[in-house]
Amino acid sequence: MNRLESPEEQEQIDFLHRLLMESNSTEHQTTGENLRNRSDILYQLGVAYLRNEEPLKAREYLEEAEKIADEFQDSSFHAEVLYALGDSYYQQRQFNAAIAYYQKYLTISQQLQNHRGEIAALFELGNAYLYLRKFTQAATFYQQCLEIEQQIGDRYSSASTYHQLGRVAQNLREFEEARRYYQQALAIKIEFDARHSLASTYHQLGYVAQDLQEFEEARRNYQQALALKIEFGDRFSSASTYHHLGMLVYELREFEEARRYYQQALAIKIEFGDRYSQATTCQSLGMLAYELGEFEEARYYYQQALGIYIEFSDRYEQARIHENLGIFAQGLGEFEEARRNYQQALAIYIEYGDRYEQARVHHNLGTVAQRLREFEEARCNYQQALVIYIEYGDRNSQASTYYNLGRVAQELREFEEARRNYKQALAINIEFGDRNSQALTYQELGRVAQELREFEEARRNYQQALAINIEFSDRYSQALTYQELGRVAQELQEFEEARRNYQQALPINIEFSDRYSSARTYHQLGTVAQELREFEEARRYYQQALAIDIEFSDRYSSASTYHHLGMVAQELQEFEESRRNYQQALAINIEFSDRYSQAITYHALGMLAEAEENYPEARVYLQTALEIYVEYKEEYWGAMARKVLERLPGDGVIRQA
C-alpha cells in the first residue's frame, strides 16, 4: 500500500537525501566515521520509506546500510537494520523472508541481553507465523514474549501480546479463550488510559461475539471500536470496523444495511490505496450481491478479489474466493464448475492444514454430488465434514451436515438411517433455538414417515413445520408443507382434503413466480383428479406440469409425469398412448439410474400388458419390477407384484430375487 505522504514526512525524506548526497561528495574522505554516518542516513531513509509503506524503496537503502553495519561489526546497529529489513518483507506479505530477518535480530538481541529487542523480535515472529496460519508457532512466540514482559514488569506492552494471543485462539475457534485474552488486553489498556488502542480490542471482542452468534454484543463492541476510531480521526482503521459491521448485519439478513457498511469500508480502503484489504470487502460485496440475486455484480466482485489475492500471492485467501465462486456456480446450476472451484479451495486448505475450512468445502462438495445424484460421493463428503465438525465441537454446523446425510439416505431409500440423521439434526436445532431449521427438519421427518406409510406421524411432523412457517410468515415454505399435507391426505384417501391443501399451495407458488414448484402442485392435483376418476381433469393438470418440466429441462421430474399420463391413458383404454408415456418415463429413469422408479414403471407396463392379455410380456415386466422391489426391501409393492404374477395364466413360477 502506498499511503499519501504528509508534508513533514516528505520534508524528512528530502532532508535525508541531501545528507546522503553530501556523504557521497568527493569532499568527504571514505573514513570510518563517514561510513558510519552514511550507514545511519541509509537506515533512517529506509525507516522513513517504511513509514510511508514503500517497502521496495526502503529495502534499497536498508540493504546498503546492512553491508556497512556488517563490515564495522556494530551488533546493536546491525540488529536494528535487520529488524527494519524484516519489516520491509512483512509489508510485502513475504512472511518467510521477514521471519529470517526477525530471527537474526532475535539472536543478536539475546547475545546483547537486550530484553526490549527480544520482545520486539518475538512479537513480530508471532505476527508473521499468525499470517502464515501456523498458529502453534505463533502462540509459542507470543508466550515467550509475554514471559519476558512479565519478567521486566512491562504491563503496557503485555496488552498487545494478550491481544495477539486472543487472535490465535480465535483462529483456532477457541472463542472463550480468545475472549479471556482480549479482556486481559482491554483491562491493561484501560489502566494505562490507552484510549486509541482500545479500539482494536473492542473490534476483536465484537468479532468473537459474532462467531458465538451473540449479535447484539458484537454490535456493541464494534460500535465502541468505531466511536474511538472516529474520535481519534483514524479513518484507515475504521474501514475494518465498517467491514465487520457489514458482516454482522449480513448475518442478520439486513442486506441493504450490510451493503452500506461494505461500501463505506471499500471507499476508505481505496482512498488509502490499501489494495490488499480491498479484496476482503470485494469478496463480501460479492456474497451480498449473490444473496440478492445480482449474479453479474457478484461475479464482478469475486473476480476483483481473486485478482488482488493473486497479485499478492495470497494462496489462502484465493481458496476463499474459489469457495465463493463454487457457491456462485452452484446457485446457477453449473455443478461441474462449482465442483472445480471447491476442489481448488480444498487443495489450498489441505496445503495450509486448515481442517475446519476443509469441513465446509467437503459439505459443499457433498451438496454438488447430491444435486448430480452421486449419492455415495455426497455421503462420503458429508461424513468427512461431520468428523471435522465433531472434532472442533461445532454443534451448529453438525446439524446442517446431519440434515444433508438424512437427505442422501432418503434418496437411497434408507429411511431409518434418514430418520436417525434428521433426529440428530433436530435435537441440535432445538438446542440452538433455530426455529427455521427445525421447520425444514420436521418437513423431512414427515416425508420419511410418509415413505414408511406412517401417515399420521407424517401429518404431525408436517403440521409442526407448518406452524413454524406461519409463525415466521414464511409463505413460500408454507406452500411446500401444504403440498406434503396434500400428499398425506391423498394416501389416507381423503381426496377433498388433499385437493384443498394443493389449492392452498398453488396460489403461493404463483405469487412467488415459482413455476418449477407450480409444476409439482399441478402434478399432485392431477393425481387427486385421477383418484376421483376425473381423468380428463387429471390429464390437463399433468400436461401443465409436463410443459413446465420441459421449459426447465427437468428430465428427471418429467419421468413421473409421463408415468402418470400413462396411467390416465390406461384408465381411458388408450393403450398405445399409455405405453408411449410409460416408455418415455422408463427411458428417463434408466438415464438417471433411478432403479426404484424403474420398478414402478415396469410394474405399470406389466399391468398394461395384462389388460391387453399379453401375459408373457406382463410376466417379464412384473418379474423385473419384483427383483428391484426386493433389492430395495420394498415389501408393500413387492407383495402387489407377486399377487399379480400369481394370477397370470401360464407358467406361474416366480423367480426368487
List the helices and strands and how they pair.
Blueprint: H1 7-24, H2 32-51, H3 55-72, H4 75-91, H5 95-111, H6 115-131, H7 135-151, H8 155-171, H9 175-191, H10 195-211, H11 215-231, H12 235-251, H13 255-271, H14 275-291, H15 295-311, H16 315-331, H17 335-351, H18 355-371, H19 375-391, H20 395-411, H21 415-431, H22 435-451, H23 455-471, H24 475-491, H25 495-511, H26 515-531, H27 535-551, H28 555-571, H29 575-591, H30 595-611, H31 615-631, H32 635-647
Report on the structure:
This protein is mainly α and 657 residues long. It has a domain at 599-657. 83% of the residues lie in helices and 0% in strands. The chain contains 32 helices and no strands. It has helices at 7-24, 32-51, 55-72, 75-91, 95-111, 115-131, 135-151, 155-171, 175-191, 195-211, 215-231, 235-251, 255-271, 275-291, 295-311, 315-331, 335-351, 355-371, 375-391, 395-411, 415-431, 435-451, 455-471, 475-491, 495-511, 515-531, 535-551, 555-571, 575-591, 595-611, 615-631, 635-647. Helix 22 (435-451) runs antiparallel to helix 23. The longest helix has 20 residues, at 32-51.
Portion of residues within helices? over 70%
Measured distance between first and last alpha carbons: 72 Å
Question: How many strands, which pairing sense, and closed or not: the largest β-sheet?
Answer: none
Question: Residue ranges: pLDDT <50 for 5 or more in a row?
Answer: 1-5
The pLDDT mean sits at 94
What structural class do you assign from the helix and strand content? mainly alpha
Strand segment tally: 0
Report the radius of gyration as a whole number of Å.
34 Å
User: Outline, from the CA principal axes?
Assistant: elongated
Approximately what portion of the residues adopt beta-strand conformation?
A: under 5%
Helix count?
32
